[in-house]
# Entry
Amino acid sequence: MVTLSYYLIFAAALFCIGMYGVLARKNAVAILMGIELMLNAVIVNVLAFWRFRTPDQIAGQAFAVMVYAVAAAEVAVGLALFISIYRRRNTVAADEIDLLKW
Amino acid sequence: MSVYQIVFLITAVVTLGAAVMVVSARSLVHSALWLILALFGVAVTFALLSAPFFTVVQVVIYIGAISILMIFAIMLTRRVMQDTGPGVNQGWWMALLLSFLLFGGLAWMLSTWEGFGTALPALPEGVDQVKALGVALVSPNAYVLPFEVASVLLLAALIGSIVVAWEKK
# Structure
């Protein structure tokens, strides 16, 4: 019998793996991939709570749609930023983009 | 073990393994390909949660659009990708420790919640979930305002990314 706990642990593990990628990777595109994993874990959580706790309400699914829209906006802006940075500074390594660091 | 359980466990193992490869692969293109597998695993999870609409959306938006966009970005910044040296920064072990701590904390906190072992309830009879979601998203009594705000956010993000990536002559 699969209970809510399976999905929650799965989503927590996916979130933590994504967080490791965000914190540890050097390349900015790889950091963005980590963020994608984290957002996917969030959507799994939202849908699991909808399915197990309130399957008769539509709020969970509507919330998941919003998360999708925000994720798409985030990746579009992020990749545009990286391409712009690459054009100006010839690098997308996160530790070399240190203009604001002193 | 029921079939549902076996399918879920296989999906979870494949997804998490692919996710680990995403964050640990040296080559960014390999990372992106593993990301596609991980996203597929999440799509299967949505199917197991009886959310077919989200399975399709996951395949179309995440695998079809976002991962291809990622691969484009990797190709456009290719020279950096082939840089030698480690793909992780010096503090990677702290990130690993923090991730494990967060996972342990989350698992402990969730296990103390009384709803943790909720069994799978039956879906309400005679309700077309996709239709209900579609109606709810454009109904003034439900979620039309968040839906429109999300649309405006998406439009603003698209215009913003064009402006940011514009090459000034």
About this structure: The radius of gyration of chain A is 17 Å. The mean pLDDT of chain A is 87. Chain A touches chain B through 73 residues (CB under 8 Å). Chain A has three helices and no strands.
